[in-house]
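Teaching note: in complex prediction, the entire set of molecules is handled at once rather than each chain in isolation. The prompt given to students was simply: 'Predict the structure of this complex.' The entities are:
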Amino acid sequence: MRFGAILLGIVILFSCLERQQDQLLPGAVIQTIKPQYAKGFEIQVLADSTKRIVLFNLEKEGDTLQIINWNNDAVKDIACLSTTHIAILNKLNSLNKVRAVGFADMVRNPEAMKLIDEGKIINLSSGHDVDDEILYSVNPDLFFIYPFDGSDIGKYESKGIRCVQVSEYLERHPLARAEWIKLFAVFLDAEDKATLVFSEMERRYLEAKEDFTDHDSLRPTVFTGSYENGIWFAPPGNSFVGQLLKDAGAKYIFEDSISTSNISLQFEELFEKAYEVDWWGKVVYEEGELTLEKISESDERYAQLKSFRERQIFYCNASEVDYFGDALMEPDVLLKDLILIFHPESAPGHKAKYFRRIE
Amino acid sequence: MYPSLPAMFSRKSVIIISLAAFVILLFMLELVFGSVDIPASAVIKILAGEIHSNQSWNTIILLSRLPRTCAAVLAGSSLALAGLLMQTLFRNPLAGPSVLGISSGSSLAVALLVMGTGGMMAGVSSDISIAIAAIVGAMVVLFIISIVAERLNDNVALLIFGIMLGYVVGAIENVLQFNASKESLRAFVMWGMGSFAEVTQRNEVFIIVFTLLFCGIVIGLFLPRLNLLLMGEDYAKSMGVNTKRTRLIIIIVTGILTGVVTAFCGPVALIGLVVPHIVRMMLRTSNHKKMFLPLVLCGGCAGLLCDLVSRTPWTTGGLPLNAVTSMLGAPVVIYIILRGRNSKAII
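The expected output is the structure of the full assembly:
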């Protein structure tokens, strides 16, 4: 007994000593900030008050994508690849630092569009790739990119361009995607603002969230996805869309499916599963309003579905609203739009922004 | 004294009967097998006009499997006919409907439409527009080929022109793809993989039936001249064949057949090239009169078989049609090349 107590004392003493030694080292981690929802990054604050950002590979659990040691350098010029990056930078009031964006013609954010029109933000893409010459001419302090092609990082970093691989699009919770604002904020010295913006967003989302987990009968069924060449592609149950539908009090017909990519099934299989489903959700990219006539013209089989017969189709027209940009930073608005569709009594006074019911 | 069975039925009759039986068998298998389990008895009742209590089954059989199966058999036959015509015209065993750039013409027109609308085609009302674009594209290339065919009296030169035209069209397509949005590119790439499932409406099936019938009749009228063409243009001319006109008609018929199939099913690879060879090997002749009916049936079999394999149950979304036609067709082409080195080629 006495021996055990002595041993415990020695262990505690050594661990304290070790911790003290750690604190003395400049590279020692004094705080690790783990996001509440996002799984793709964590921020470590080091003893010398610099930061180490660890980016995880969301397609391979346990794999680290990139480690960035950040000395709180001032960032003047930013380049980014995605419309979602623009949405985040806009929330942090940092669009004035953006010099170039990929696929500029796809940007729908009004402020960013204005800057593009004025030539203050230039298009970085040529075809489906980054135009390296444009990037080098801009010579940004930071370049937010996709993690598709890791080899590009070395190419850019050897030219002095620091890259950050952003994989928010792989997150599975609407709040997780929005939480990436905290990562961007580290580089822009805007962490307090990011925390404030996110916590407000989170509060609104959680307040609006419908919890019908124990009342399945109250949840209308819903399906979504897109058809190409005889195959139906749909987001899995553990996706951003699956979570959003669940939180909006609907029962997604593929909610039990777990996958890192879209699930695919033969059209007839989808047809049988969706035949008696209450609602059909669509994200389209086309001019004008989506109508029942347009849908039945595209494929007469759709007219047989219950959702079509009962006019229970809702959609988001990505050519009119910034579904692939600003919507990322408005998960609460997306959620309320859906609640207004499934449970209108729970969203009094809400004005639909992204999703609306077909006329 | 009764004649023995082999004497009663010639080799050709046996092949025709066997192929017809195969077409019927594969047709039924296509209707019965799918990702949704529907009992064969229910399939037969629905086909007979009964309305099944499971409403979704009625739609799946009548508006999904039936048009798809019809498209598979009709497109297979059309492409096989087009392939035979091309091989005869160019007296080249590796000629096919896509060689003259007709498929490429269709593809380019579809690319222009899909990319030009900036991905808007991915959704509603795309099928009809794509079909029209593909036919128009095939016809434009056909028009160019016809003009050149009038001036060039050399089939090899015409073949090379067709291949070069295909390259030019392909290059324009690449430029369009390079500058297209991701949604457009995806829609176009998916279309390029080919699928009989895109045919879902009765009027689409009727268009293919009408095209095949019309072209079949035209080819039927020209069968003796096609046989003479096989012997060489000079020989055909000496036998009184207007080779220029015959060549033009072959090109037009091939263009229509390929254009319509490409319009509704995408550019389907290799069926047109391979099926005529299979039929020649089975019949041991290149006589168009003898080949005509077996070719139509064998083309139908090929279309049905490829579609059946592409709906393979061990993959959730199935396989791309062109992956199947290539995997099944390429070994046949290799066999033809090897056989051609060791023995006298048929054409």
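Point out the following to students. Chain A has 13 helices and 19 strands. The interface with chain B takes residues 103, 105-106, 127-128, 226, 228-231, 233, 263-269, 271-272, 275-276, 282, 284-287, 290, 294-295, 297-301, 304, 319 of chain A (CB under 8 Å).
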